[in-house]
Amino acid sequence: MKIEEEIRQPKFKSANEKALINLIFTSNWLHNKQQELFKPYGITPQQYNILRILKGQHPSSISGTEIKNRMLDKNSDVSRLLDRLVIKALIEKKTCPIDKRASDVFITSAGLTLLDKLANKQKEMDMILSLNKEEAEQLSNLLDKSRGT
Q: CATH number of the domain at 42-128, out of 1.10.357.10, 3.90.180.10, 1.10.10.10, 3.40.1160.10?
C-alpha cells in the first residue's frame, strides 16, 4: 500500500517530505514486525541486538560501553537491558579485572541457543521488505547517502 493510502494524506509539500515520512512510517512498521517476531521468545528488538553483538564477540567479552556504541538504537538504556538479559540467563556479567567500575559481558550458551532458534525467523524478517538483492543494495546505498556516509 502506498504511503498516501497508509496515512490517508494525498499530498505532500515535496518529494523529500514524502520520502522522509515514508521512511519514518516504514521504520516504525518494521520495528512493530520485529516486536511481533521476538515476543514469543520473551525478548525485545534491543535485547536481540545486544545478543547479536555478543555473539559476534563470542567467546570474548565486551564492555557495556562498547555494546552501547554498537547498538542500532543509540537511545537504549543498555544497563537496564543487560540486567534483564542476566535475569533471563542469556548473558553473564563479570566485574572487569582492570576497571572494577566496569563489567565484562558474555553471551551464555542459552543466549546462543536462542539466537540459533531465531535464525530462521530472522531470515523471514530479512525477506519482509520484498526486495531482490539489487534493490536491497540500492536501498541500503541510498540510506547510507541520506546519512551523509
A: 1.10.10.10
Is the distance from CB of 12 to CB of 18 less than 8 angstroms?
yes
What secondary structure letter does DSSP report for 60?
A: S
Burial class of 123 by CB neighbour count within 10 A (0 to 12, 13 to 18, 19+): exposed
Look at residues 84, 83, 90 and name the one whose alpha carbon lies nearest to residue 55: 90
Q: Is 92 exposed, middle or buried (0-12, 13-18, 19+ CB in 10 A)?
A: middle
Give the domain ranges of the chain. 1-41, 42-128
**Predicted confidence (pLDDT) per residue in 106-148, tens digit:** 999 999 999 999 988 877 888 888 889 999 999 999 999 998 8
Q: What's the pLDDT tens digit per position in 39-85?
A: 999 999 999 999 999 999 999 999 988 999 999 988 889 999 999 99
